[in-house]
Structures are given as structure tokens and as C-alpha cells.
Amino acid sequence: MNILGIETSCDETAAALWQTMDGKGRILAEKVASQIDTHARFGGVVPEVASREHLAVLPILAQQVMQQAGLTWSELDGIAVTAGPGLMGALLVGTAWARGAACVNNIPVLPVHHMEGHLLAPGLDHELPPFPFVTLLVSGGHTLLVRVDGIGRYVQLGQTIDDAAGECFDKSARLLGLPYPGGPAIAKLAENGDAKRFALPRPMLNRDNLDFSFSGLKTAVMYAVHKMDDMDEQTRTDMAASVEAAICEVLVSKSIRACRQTGSKHLLIAGGVAANRTLRHLLETQSENSGISVHLPRPEHCTDNAAMIAYAAAKRLEKGLAFPDKWDARPRWPLEELSKT
Ligand code: KG4
Ligand code: ZN
Prior knowledge:
The chain has helices at 36-40, 47-69, 88-104, 114-120, 122-125, 165-175, 182-190, 215-227, 233-262, 277-289, 299-302, 307-318, 337-340, and strands at residues 2-7, 12-21, 24-34, 78-84, 109-113, 133-138, 143-150, 153-159, 266-270, 293-295. With 341 residues, it is an alpha/beta fold.
């Protein structure tokens, strides 16, 4: 089975080819064109600019991965495309292109939930552990703890009640005068910082539930920054390390709690924030102490990519799960709706 994956939900244009043969799967080719440089001067993603860039880049990327994989269009079993959630204009570029290419080549188009792509992405690099397992999904717009009972069977255990973890990284970075996207910028600066210098809050850490809250942490950073007349470089570095430590500590602690509460011995992480090295290290060390094995996708499969979209579609097809005939791009699309279909 050969699936072409397409991802254009935000600021990365991506195409990839996933092949399953004799029960084994592999990525034949993948490409991601980041728009970070385009949006960085605006301090965040400009939706209309993102759509236009997807439009210019996507056909070229798709052609390139087809060539790299040495496949003809007639050898494809489907074109998987992110149908949501994401920026409406950006989604429309990807879905319209996928529908057109699928129609011309007489193959099915397979609408995929972006978060299902992230959730299953650890399977791109290693075999997925036995179900059920727990996944911490941390991206720019979502912070979720999910019990994965099977492909297409997701139970939300907890979520953020306000900002997402990625959003907290991005907003804190902006307060520190760092460029977009804030997560990698904070992580880089934090390497040389003293994470204990600023006592930032660990929101909801002691609440006995699996929900998160990050807006108070962002506000604490704002007050700390505004209190200083002038922030020297070491102070900025120490603040970056303190913010990163606060976010990671809460994420790790709640993830381990989720495993304990559900009796799961396997913890997966996914989404852009899962590329964070401090988070990965902390998860590995703390889970080991709790007898939980952690499954980490490669950093490039944590951030937005098309291999995860092709892979999620392939897994659904393998399970015999149907894709709808009639569907539209959906900027908002709760993950739990997938379990009802
Ligand atoms: O999953 P993703 O690529 O796009 C969405 O679907 O949102 O996640 C993007 C988020 C951004 O908030 C970005 O700052 C964050 O992931 N991020 C990181 C790192 N790399 C990306 N946050 C912390 N450390 C990183 N290394
Ligand atoms: Zn994403």
C-alpha cells in the first residue's frame, strides 16, 4: 500500500510517501518546507501569507517526493490530507489540491485529523507499543493527555483549560524579546541558563486531575519581566531556563500521573513541544523511576510533517476504518469525535 500524505494546516508545507508492504511500513520520501522565515518578521503566523505560500510550494513538494520515491501516480492507493484542525485558508489549499490530484488520478482522497497524525507519529520511528497506552500531545494549539485504546479510539484524560504548552512557550518568548517560534528559541537560550533563578508557578500541579493551565505562568513571566527596568542577557537566559523548567515539570508530572491512573506502562509524546530536549530528558529519567517506558518520535516527527498524516491514514485503512465520502476542511474538530465514527 502506498499513501501520499499532505500537510498544510499551519506554517509548514509538507508531503511524504508511506509504504506498507508484507506487514512492514516505511517512509519512502518526505519533505517539509518551513515558512518560519516568512512569518518571523511578523512575530507569528499570518494566515493569508501562509495560504499563499502553501499554494506556491505544495505542488512542487508533492512532485519531488513522488520522484524521490520512484512511484507513478497510478501506484498510489490514496492521498491522505490534513482536513483539520488548523487555519481554514491553509487547510483549504491542501485539501483542494489533494482532491484535485486524487480526482485526476482516480484514487481516493483520505481526510485525516491533524491531532490523530501527531498522536500516532511515534509509530513512524518505532513500532507502537500494545494498546492501550497514554500519549501526551503538546503542540502550538493543543495540550492533551489521551488514552489510546486502538487506532481511532481515543479517550481524552485531560487538557489545558486555557493556553496550550506551545502557546506558553511562544508567548513567553515574545515577552523576552525572542523570535517566533518561541519554543525552539527558549530551548536554545535555556541551555546556558539557571532554571532555579526565578520561582515561577507550576499551575495545577497539585490538583488531583489531569488538566493543565498555562496562562497564569505566562502572566507570571509578564510581571517578572515588567518589574525589571532593563533585562541583561544573563537574566533573559535564566528566565528562559526557568520558564522551560516550569512547563516541562508540569507536563512530566501529569503524564506520569495519567499512566498511574490508567495502569499504562507505556507513555508516548507527540506534537511540536515534544521536540524539546529538556522535556524528553526529564520524561525519560522520571518515567524510568516509575517503571514506565517512554516512546519518543524523532524531533522532526514531533513538529508538523506529512509522514504522520500518511501513516495515520494507512493505519486506518489497515484497520478497515472508513473515510467519509462527504467532508469539508474543519478549522475546529474535537479529537473525541473520531471515536464516535
Ligand atoms: O505541532 P506543531 O509543530 O504545530 C501545531 O500543530 O501547533 O507545534 C508547534 C509548537 C510551537 O508552539 C513551537 O514553539 C513548539 O511547538 N515547539 C517547541 C520546540 N519546537 C517546537 N517548544 C519547545 N521546545 C522545542 N524545541
Ligand atoms: Zn501540529
